[in-house]
Specification:
Jelly Rolls; 2 domains; five-stranded antiparallel beta sheet; 28% strand; elongated; signal; coiled coil
Length: 234
């Protein structure tokens, strides 16, 4: 157990230093310092996992060899230490989960009320930019894709600002790495309008968000003037 204790004395001292820095900080910096402290704690635990797993394998081998040599006292001692390492690994796994949950919660609380995805940053397929709009969604499969700005996982309401003529419209799909939603795009008789497409679960905030025309009334889905996300927690 000396092996385990030496690792966690170092980790504990480092976390105490990080925590002390947070107490000395001004209020506007507390969120960022807390995030830094959580990341540091998580990195220390993650760095300790590989040596602990290696030590676990070594103990299993020692236990087996001592049992084969009929050194039963030695085998029992190795078994007891192996079980202690297994318990420690299980505890660290739970602690990692708690740290990750806390980190995601802090990231979510720091998000702005509205996250705009600029039209000029979209990667287009069978869609064109025209006068600050995205239009010419000319066939099913026409799409625009954005790189997400490192969002924490969670639910986000998807909003668009658009114009849709009498012969425009159809069905629009919004898709992230794993989940998607669909929304009907109808005629906007009073000029440009904002529309809430629904709430989408973002599983990977560093991946992409894609808008795709799945059906068309005629030959254009809409004129897209804006796209933004609102965290569901806001």
């Amino acid at each position: 157990m000396k092996f385990i204790r030496s690792i966690f004395r170092i980790a504990l001292l480092a976390c105490m230093i990080a925590s002390g820095a947070g107490h000395a900080a001004d209020a506007p910096l507390e969120n960022g310092l807390e995030l830094a402290r959580l990341r540091f704690q998580r990195s220390m635990i993650e760095a300790s996992l590989a040596p602990l797993k290696k030590h676990l394998l070594e103990l299993s081998d020692v236990e087996k060899k001592r049992a084969e040599a009929r050194d039963y006292a030695g085998a029992i001692a190795a078994r007891n230490e192996r079980r202690a390492v297994e318990d420690e690994l299980e505890r660290l796994d739970k602690e990692l989960l708690l740290l990750q949950t806390r980190e995601q919660s802090l990231k979510a609380s720091a998000l702005p009320d509205r996250i705009t995805l600029p039209l000029e940053q979209a990667k287009l397929s069978d869609v064109r930019r025209e006068g600050g709009e995205l239009t010419g969604w000319s066939k099913p499969g026409s799409s625009a894709t954005w790189k997400l700005p490192a969002l924490p996982p969670g639910g986000y309401e998807i909003y668009i600002k658009h114009r849709c003529g009498a012969l425009d419209g159809g069905l629009l799909e919004v898709k992230e790495a794993k989940f998607h939603l669909t929304s009907q795009i109808d005629t906007t008789s009073k000029g440009p309008q904002e529309k809430n497409l629904g709430t989408l679960k973002i599983t990977d905030g560093t991946s992409t968000l894609t808008l795709t025309a799945t059906t068309l009334v005629k030959d254009n889905l809409m004129h897209l003037l804006g796209l933004w996300l609102v965290p569901a927690s806001k």
